[in-house]
Specification:
The chain is of the alpha/beta class and about 210 residues long. The chain contains 11 helices and 5 strands; from the N terminus they run ααααβαβαβαααααββ. The chain has a single domain, classed as Carbonic anhydrase (Beta-carbonic Anhydrase, Chain A), CATH 3.40.1050. A 5-stranded mixed β-sheet has the order 2-1-3-4-5, sandwiched between helices. The mean pLDDT is about 95.
Amino acid sequence: MIDRYLSLDGAMGAEMQSELTPSDAVALLKDGVRRSTSGKVSVRDRQSLLNDAAGGQFPYAAVLSCIDSRAPVEQIFDAASGDLFVARVAGNVASPDLVASLEYATKYAGSKAILVLGHTRCGAVKGAWAGLEDGHLTGLLGRIQPAVKSTKSDRGEEGSPANLDACSAVNVRMTMEALRQDSAILSELESKGDIAIVGGVYDVATGEVSWLD
C-alpha cells in the first residue's frame, strides 16, 4: 500500500481510501515521518492535486494536533493536499467541536485512523503546569490539568523540560481516552475495527515522532 501511495500522481481517490485498513493508514503516517526525516520526500504535481480536489476529498487519516508553529503536520508526514484531515488546537485537547470534526472525518468522510499528536516543548502544557488562568485559556488549559496532576504525582513538581515533555505524552494518552469516552461514534468505529486511534509525540528538535502504544 505504501508503494501504491507513493506512485500517486495526484490525490488519493475513493477506491484507494476504501481499500485501506486502519493498519495501512497508520503505516502511511509512519512512513511519511521516515521520508520527511530522511529528506526523501515525495513530490506530486500541484495541478493534478488541484484537479482531483474538484472531485472530492478522501483523506486516509485525521490528525488532532497542537497549533504550535514548529509542528507543521503535513510536512511531518510528507503529506499532500487531500491526504489528511488536520484539526489543530493548543494542547491538542479534545473539545466538543474537535470531537465532532473527527466523527465527520471518520464516519462520513472515510478516514481510517485518528492520530493524536503532541509535541515536545509545548507551550500549552507549560502553561497548564504553571496553573495559568487568563481569559478563554483557563478552560482550555483546564483540559490538560489531569495530565499535569498525573505527571506531577509520578515525577514531582519541577517544571523541567523532561517533566513537561513527559506530561505532553500523558496528555496525548488522555486525549485518546477522551475521544473514546466522549464519542460513542468513535468508540464504536474503533471497537469494530473500522478505525485506529493512535498517539504520538513530535520532537520539534529532531523531526521524529515517538509513537505511543
